[in-house]
Design brief:
Blueprint (H helix, E strand, L loop, with lengths): L1 E5 L6 H12 L2 E4 H11 L2 H12 L5 H13 L7 E4 L5 H13 L6 E6 L2 H15 L6 H24 L3 E5 L4 H15 L1
The protein binds adenosine-5'-diphosphate.
Length: 189
């Protein structure tokens, strides 16, 4: 099964993706984590991405599609994958559909984690404190949230049209969100 975890920054996508990885053996594919790994390694790609990320803007489709492609084609996700933070544009969504269909697979469910802005801001301030991510400043966060509202308005209808968009209330404890997520997967799988 291939799942997309969709939601605003701070919605808990990474946390839930890790739980799904542990419980179902799915592979978490997070473009944000991949980009941060490139930055940590000091690669050319990482250098290019860092400036854009720190401003809260989107990295180019070419870069993120290339990163995802290399994982998908390596067979790292034969048991299924949880896409976290990808796709964020229609071009990315279409590229993903194509690379999966080449392998005879498809996206089964798109979970939309819904969280209100005030709660997101509180969570990000907390995360900035704990993790020290350089794009978790209030200024960059507001740009990211704005970007999210814009790209969600494109990408969510794309999956709505395929009948696979499923909303989940992200304003609950980690355990309760996880239970709701399981219920959605069991019902639709
Ligand atoms: P969050 O969802 O909390 O903003 P992510 O780790 O998913 O955090 O993303 C951090 C940053 O990485 C984004 O603001 C963006 O600059 C870049 N990024 C991650 N995934 C993508 C993507 N699919 N397309 C474009 N840029 C991306």
């Amino acid at each position: 099964m291939n799942i997309i975890l969709f939601g605003p920054p701070g919605a808990g996508k990474g946390t839930q993706a890790k739980i799904l990885e542990r419980e179902y053996g799915f592979k978490q594919l997070s473009t944000g984590d991949m980009l941060r790994a490139q930055i940590a390694e000091g690669t050319e790609l990482g250098l290019q991405a860092k400036t854009v990320m720190d401003q809260g803007r989107l990295v180019s489709d070419e870069i993120v599609i290339g990163m995802i492609r290399s994982y998908v084609e390596s067979g790292a996700c034969v048991k299924g994958a949880v896409f976290d933070g990808f796709p964020r544009t229609i071009a990315q969504a279409e590229a993903l559909d194509l690379m999966l269909s080449d392998l005879g697979r498809t996206i089964d469910i798109v979970v939309e984690l819904q969280v209100e802005d005030e709660q997101l801001i509180a969570r990000i301030q907390n995360r900035a404190h704990e993790e020290g991510r350089s794009d978790d400043t209030l200024k960059a966060f507001k740009v990211r949230l704005d970007a999210y509202r814009n790209y969600a308005a494109d990408v969510l209808p794309y999956y709505q049209g395929k009948g696979i968009r499923r909303p989940v209330n992200g304003m609950q404890s980690v355990e309760c969100v996880s239970e709701d997520l399981h219920a959605v997967l069991e019902r639709d799988a």
